[in-house]
Amino acid sequence: MVVESKIVQGLMRLGDVSVDDLYKLICFDLENGVNYFDLSDIYLDGESEKKFGEVLKMHPELREKMFIQTKCGIVKDRKNDICYYDLSYDHIIESVDKSLKRMNIDHIDSLLLHRPDIFLDANEVARAFATLSQNGKVLHFGVSNFPHELMKYLYDHTNIPMEINQLQLGLGHLDLVREVFNVNMENEEGVEHTGELFFYMKRYGKILQCRSPYQVGFFGGSLFNDPKYAEANAYLDELATKYKVSKCAIATAFLLMLGNHIQVVTGSTNIDHVKETIDGTKITLTKAEWYTLYRKTGNLLP
After folding, report:
1. pTM to 2 decimals?
2. Contact present, 233 and 298 (Cβ < 8 Å)
3. CA torsion sign, 50 to 54 to 57 to 61?
């Protein structure tokens, strides 16, 4: 699979975004080389896909310029306060049909399985993927938040490769790379959380989409506003001045240096903030700057 653009426009936070403003954002993205749009059937309980679909209904000429990705597998019953994961054949097929209808499109460019379902059966997933591929409803397949053993399990039982894994990775959440540096160390940093997932992805040419790239931990707020990261922010300011960009651009460049298989998902719908993310594709930090920034976020480099 060829990476369409280094920056992915995430569309989870569309609650206060009007259809007109979403159209302006999409146009800005396309004009600036971002043609990859990421959604999920669970975002705003399908309303994000629906609003996106309203834009495409009014401006169908945009579709051929876009690479559209959505996800399925998370089920929420808000009335009864129930949440669970479902990656059965029936649920995958039903979810795709509903997503296509909400977005007013006839095919999805990339479908991701949103979260691991402990009851997942690879043969059942393979049957769903084969059905969707054969009828032209989905062109590419991947996963989100999956460990590498589960990716391998799916690969061993399907003829359709898992081309993408969307995972949290950023200066405020560096588990994927921190455990590489601290292998065989008797410290907290050396505790394995990801099962060497980073180099598994790189070895087999899987696209690693970095979600929540500017968040601290699991939606713990922006790194740029967190007093615990004062030293990192001071260095980000220094690099931003040197390269004449924003701190956000530096944080984006930090991730993109990790390889050609990297994409950065911006969750912002503010055009000015999206521009800052795009600016990160135009600069390359030195290796010394990369490692210094890594350490200044409080990470140990043995």
Report:
1. 0.94
2. no
3. negative
